[in-house]
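Consortium newsletter contribution from the modelling node. Members have asked for a concrete example of what our holo predictions look like. Here is one, prepared for the arginine complex that several groups have been discussing at recent meetings.
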Amino acid sequence: MGKGKVVLAFSGGLDTSICVPLLKEHYGFDEVITVAVDVGQPPEDIKTATDKGNKIADRHYTIDIKDRFVEEQLFPSIKANGSYEGYPMGTALARPLIAEEIVKIARKEGAESVAHGCTGKGNDQLRFDFVFRKEGLNIIAPMREMNLTREWEMDYAEKHGVPVPVVKAKPYSVDENCWSRSIEGGVLEKPENHPSNDIYAWTVSSKDAPDEPEEVRIGFEKGIPVSLNGKKMNGIDLILELNCIAGRNGVGRNDMIEDRILGLKAREIYEHPAATVLLKAHPDLERLVLSRQELAFKHIVDEKWSELGYMGLIHEPLFEALSAFVDKTQERVTGFVDVILYKGSVTVAGRSSPNALYSDDLVSFESKTIDQNDAVGFSAYYGFQARIKDMIAKTKSE
Ligand code: ARG
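And here is the predicted structure:
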């Protein structure tokens, strides 16, 4: 008597591919059901995962949640200027939704066990497990439990006739969704090694970018990007198009040392062209419409929101409360931001909003709307306590 059904989060990559034979041979499951979740990976990767799942698993599902991913995770992340240690999160935002889709299939199939191909060293195991555990499912993580290395996995795949995209010469682990592409492993594990140009897929190097700058106008409504160069677009189309535009101008590469949740430092390389542009334009528009108090407090909220987002703790009550605060502030974040893309750089060139707190009539050197004499009284009390301190010191020394 075997162990029944297990539903595996499946990408078609090395780890999840060898999970299929492992879950049967090593764990004794009777049926392995693979699920590929489309969060905007390249269509050919989805096709590979689908074909492979259909071939090697007992049953396979491919589920397209691109729109849900954009609306429920990326839009909120733009509103909260979501970034962790200075880079726009991508994988972190996709994992919880992928996990939720796996849960749905497990329920549908009547499976009590779910599996993922995460190692015991990274963040993704925690992001998946958080959702699975909340649902009371039994979690199987072969890579983590068997302490497998990628070397061993490649040999095992070969022995079981499982085709894998990774070759020993280029053993990178790549994770992709429409917001971000991450590349790790292999020679990149030595932080002093310079990345070769062939690891990149979405961006050109700045030296290969066009010699002419390219300008893009981004329209925002309540904190969400809604148009490119005057053309109204839905979220996913806008992000994909902006990835192309910014990527061809060399915008959105990132090579960094990152602190993982467990405390391990890792060398991570990312491509996120659209995110780089939007996370430059959005806070710029906020500076035009939000008050000084709102901006200062929101900065703290954004940081905390991002930290919880990075940890995949999207059901943590604080995350919900912070998201409610962020949404409230975004009611006025409507307008346009013009950016110039040029050989890897993004520069804001102009911005406008019907809700701007900025008024050229008030601030201009040429205007008399404000009577400058009003500032004299304010100035008299300005830095008052510092002067009081001096006055007291003076009386004492006399
Ligand atoms: N370090 C990033 C994160 O924790 C990306 C990890 C992506 N995984 C991968 N196998 N490339 O969100």
